[in-house]
Structure formats: C-alpha cells, structure tokens
Amino acid sequence: MRIVYPGELDTAAGAIEAGGLVIVPTNRWYMICADASNADAAGSIFEGKRRPTGKSLAYVTPSLTVCEQHFQLGAEARRLAQQFWPGDLALLLPWRDPEDAACHAAVGSPALTTMAPGFLGELAARAKVPVAATTANISGDAGPDDRGPAVTLDEVHTFLAASGLTVSVVVDGGVCPAANHMTIVDCFTPEAKLVRTGLVHQRAVNAVLGREVRPS
To answer: How far is it between the farthest Cα atoms of the chain?
Structure first.
C-alpha cells in the first residue's frame, strides 16, 4: 500500500485503471474506490466490507455530460443534478442501455449516481475507467462502539485490518470534517422520491423541485 497526498491523484487514478483499490478523503469521510466495470475489483469491496450485493456502490460520474451518456435523467433528476452537483447528493437513475448496466453491476440498476466535489470528483475526472465508491467501513456494524466510516488515516488503517482488503493507494487528506451521509433521491420514476436524508437537507430538495418530496 502506498500513501500519497492530494497532489498525486494521477497515481491513484493509475492504480484504479490497473485494477487496484484506492481510498480517498472527502468532506464526509474516506471512500474506497474501484473500477466500476471491473467485477473482481468491485466485488472485493463487497467481500471486505461484508456488504450485501444488493446494496450498490456509487457510480462517480466525472461530469453531467458523461452521466447523460449512460443514464436517463428526467426533468426532476436534471434539476437536482444542476443544482447540487458536484455535491453531497446521489440519484438513483435508470441506465440507457441494459448491456451497459450489465457491465457495471456493482453500481446497480437503477444506478446510485453522484458527481462528487473535491478529491473524489478529481479522481473520477482523471481515471480512464468509471469509478465506483463507498464508505471505508464494515457494513452493518452498528454496535455501541461503531464510529461509522473512517474520518482519519488511523481509522482507514483500522478498517483495512478488519476487512482484510489489499489497497494499492491511500490518499492522505487529513481529517474529514462532516462525518455524514450523502442524501439519496430515487429518480427512477418521473416523480422523484427521497430515499435517505444527509448533508443535502430535505427542505433544499423540496425547494428545487417546488413540492414536498415523499419518502420512497
């Protein structure tokens, strides 16, 4: 495992392109990433995290243009993306092509899609392969001592020891301040529905769509 700094994101991008796993900091917490089209690499994340295969990784799109090449964005999805991307919002979107969906099974169908700010977004823009990401923690570990996903480099090391995952590159970004989830909105149907609240408040989603967004 190689520890690098934010100015060395090309190294991290190259590791993902080579089929390796990479951990990068975000405003929220550290995220573990893989090539979304590499079933073995993405599958190792599910195995190490003990994550149910039905709980998708996030597809990190480098731009709204690339997103539209792969996914169908209805009117409400487009409004949310234009307002909050890059940002702490993920949209569940239908694929344009079933064959494309089959090549990216780790991010699901509909796909959990985001355009991330900061280092994660830069990584997606530099990598020549699609990036899938999820939080650096063991899934479902909600006991009284569970601190949630890693927000420091020491906690990243603790996660790696617990998961048994082999990571090619870790980007040291210091301490992640927010320690909170992305908001998730289901845009599979024309009328968007709220799946999970997070850093983007429900009131903000309501304001953009001009209506009360119901839970899915």
So the answer is: 48
For 164, the token pair is 């048994």
Distance CA 106, CA 115 (A): 17
Within 8 A by CB and 6+ apart from 95, the residues are 70, 71, 72, 101, 109, 110, 111
pTM higher than 0.90: yes
User: Is residue 100 within 8 Å of 192, Cβ to Cβ?
Assistant: no
Residues shown for the chain: 216
Residue type, 90: A
Domains in the chain, ordered, with CATH?
2-209 (3.90.870.10)
Summarised one tens digit per residue, pLDDT across range 108-129 is 999 999 999 999 999 999 999 9
